[in-house]
Amino acid sequence: MNELDQLLESPASLILLVTNIGVSLAAFSNVRLLDRLLFDVSRMRRNGEWYRMFTSGFVHGDPFHLFVNMLALYFLGLPLESIVGTAPFLAIYIGSLLAGSLWTWMEHFRDLNYRALGASGAISGVTTAVAMFVPTATIYVFFALPMPLILFAALYIGWSAWASSTGVRDGLGHAAHLGGALAGIAIICIWWPHIPQLMVDQIMARLRGF
C-alpha cells in the first residue's frame, strides 16, 4: 500500500490534517480568528468560554509549529488509525486533546495572562498510544537519532513532567504534552486492557534478541 492509499484509508487522520492546516493557515492571517479560538485563561474564567479547550487544538503559533505537529500526526496517526480503527482513533485524539487542555487549565488557571494553542496534547496522546501497540518500532529523533518508540515515549513523558512541575518557560506547552500523553495511555488501558501485557512481551522479546 502506497502512502496515498494509506492516507485515503485513514479518514479521521486525513480530516484532522486538513482541518488543522486549514484553520491554522486562516488564523495566521486573521488575528481575530486566532484570538477567538486559542486557549485563554482570562476569557475562560470570566466569560465561560470553555469551548477553547477544544478549538485551541486546531490553531498554531507559526508555520513551523504547524509543520511539526502535522508531520507527527501523519507518521503516527495513520498507523494508529489502521491498528485501532477510525472511531477509537478519534476517541484517543480528542480525549488526549481535551486532557491536555484540562491539565493546562489545572496548572495555569490562576494566571489570567496565560494563553496557549496547538495540537500538541492530541499528538502526545497519539504518540504514547502507538508506543503501547508497537513499542519496539523505531522512531528517528530529529530525523537522525534512531530510538525505540517506547523509550522515546518514556523520555517524552519524563521531560514533560519535569518541565511542567518546575515551571519551565520555553514556549512549549509542557502541561498539555503531559496531560495528552497520559490520556493516551489511559485510553489504551481502558479500551484494550490486554495491550500493556502485550507491550511488555514485545519489549522482553526484543531484549532477549540482543
Structure description:
There is one protein chain. The protein has 210 residues and is mostly helical. Helices cover 72% and strands 6% of the residues. It has eleven helices and four strands, in the order H-H-H-E-H-H-H-H-E-H-E-E-H-H-H. The strands form two sheets. Strands 1-2 form a two-stranded antiparallel sheet. A two-stranded antiparallel sheet has the order 3-4. A hairpin with a 3-residue loop joins strand 3 (138-141) and strand 4. It is globular, with a radius of gyration of 17 Å.
The string of secondary-structure elements, in order, is HHHEHHHHEHEEHHH
Query: What share of residues is helical?
Result: over 70%
Give the strand tally: 4
The portion of residues forming beta strands comes to 5-15%
Mean pLDDT: 93
Radius of gyration: 17 Å
Shape descriptor reads globular
Gap between N and C termini = 31 Å
User: Helical stretch count?
Assistant: 11
Alpha-beta content class: mainly alpha
> What are the low-pLDDT stretches, counting only 5+ consecutive residues below 50?
none
